[in-house]
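Researcher: Next sequence.
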Amino acid sequence: MGTDALGRDLFSGVVHGARTSLFVAGAVCALAMACGAIVGMTAGWRGGLVDDLLMRATELLQVLPRFFLVVVAVALLGPGVDRLVLTLGLTTWPVLARVMRGEVAAMRDLDFVMAARATGARDARIVWRELLPNVLPSAAVMLGLLFGQVILIEASLGFLGLGDPNSVSWGLLAGQAQGYVRVAWWLSVFPGLAIAAAVLGVNLLADSTAAAFGGR
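Model: Next structure:
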């Protein structure tokens, strides 16, 4: 892959940058999954006023432009991986919450739920031990799509110089290559290919997961 303007090995930078990009995407998805599961499953199980209030709050967060919200957060709090994960995680969960809420609302009157109620199981046990395993396949498919989106957002921020300057990432490598596009094309091409391969791979995995569970 050649070297950069300072003679450093670009291949090592791309491999090292994968840790930051994939860590941010994984941490964001984990936080979004936790928040989405709590809100979505509570809304789907309770229904009524609780469902309405939680879904209206979810829709309010869903319409916020995540990218510009992260830009504002970085401008106010300064760049950092922890702040990036927190901001993206707290604005990514609404999509998961809506998916999980719909699944729970469709399952709460099925026979296996009625059987659990008949045995005296509490609501918390039914939701987390009976319903959650049946909701996870649909949530996992959506989570794969969100993983790719977060990689693109993190790369865009790094490209604009709004990522953590102390952590090498694909976006940071692509951003540093802006001044050398005409004389060193590989500086921007290989980090871009890494981003494209990661996003494509995650999307194909999500499609395969959907097809596998759909076939059942």
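Model: Residues 10-46 form the longest helix (37 residues). The chain has one domain: 10-215.
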